[in-house]
Amino acid sequence: MRVVRNPSLTIGVTIVVAIVVAAIIGPILVRADPISIDLADILAGPSRVHPFGCDALGRDVLARILWGARLSLSISTIVVAISLVVGSLIGATAALAGGRIDNLVMRGVDIVLAFPGILLAIALAAILGPGLIDLVITLTAMGWTGYARIVRGEVLTLREREYVLAAETLGASRSRLLMRHLLPGVVGPLAVQATFGIGGIIGAEAALSFLGLGAIPPTPSWGNMLDAGRAFLLVAPHLTTAPGLAIGFSILGFNLLGDGIAQRVGHRA
Length: 269
Hints:
The protein has 269 residues and is mainly alpha-helical. Helices cover 72% and strands 0% of the residues. The longest helix is centred in the first third of the chain and has 37 residues, at 61-97. The model has no long low-confidence stretch (mean pLDDT 89).
């Protein structure tokens, strides 16, 4: 049996697992309070007690990085889950309905996609205001369209398969066709899209928090850590290096994982 090498999947899984484990057990192992102010450690550099140093308020950077990982992974997972469900239902409904409904839905999708994603997110975040709930709403509003397009295209293709035509001939309802015969066939493409989506949402959440439109300080967020540290780039570069590397490795890990899943799905197909 020929073994197919997939380094993207291996490296991606390794990075993602490391980030998830750090987010889950890191705050338990690192006892420092991420929001506790210690004036004696203001802008302290990396040391044995504070491996990543301290920020302008004397807060432990490592603790804030780990709690920020929890926030980023939680927000991205929630947003992707909601976007996937909403987009899949809209795309599948449009494909099954066809005609005017399909055209109307897809023109709406095209209108949303006509706006650059991050600019749309900034506009919505500015209207709704900062906060985690509003952040989820903002990111979901810009994220569901990709899933809708993928599901619609896959469903239109799968509808022509013999087993779907047979089920339809035997009187299967549209809901049964959708849940039992069509949606299972789009699991692979959706998994790829969702994995890439998590990486994209992590970057978008950090960007909005950097602009003051995401998590409200003192809540630890990689984006607002970058914002707070940019005034001290020359005297305390660790304030921006640590969250910047966290964002970069997280996005890299999920992108490699998505690429690996895409290769695996394509090989099996």
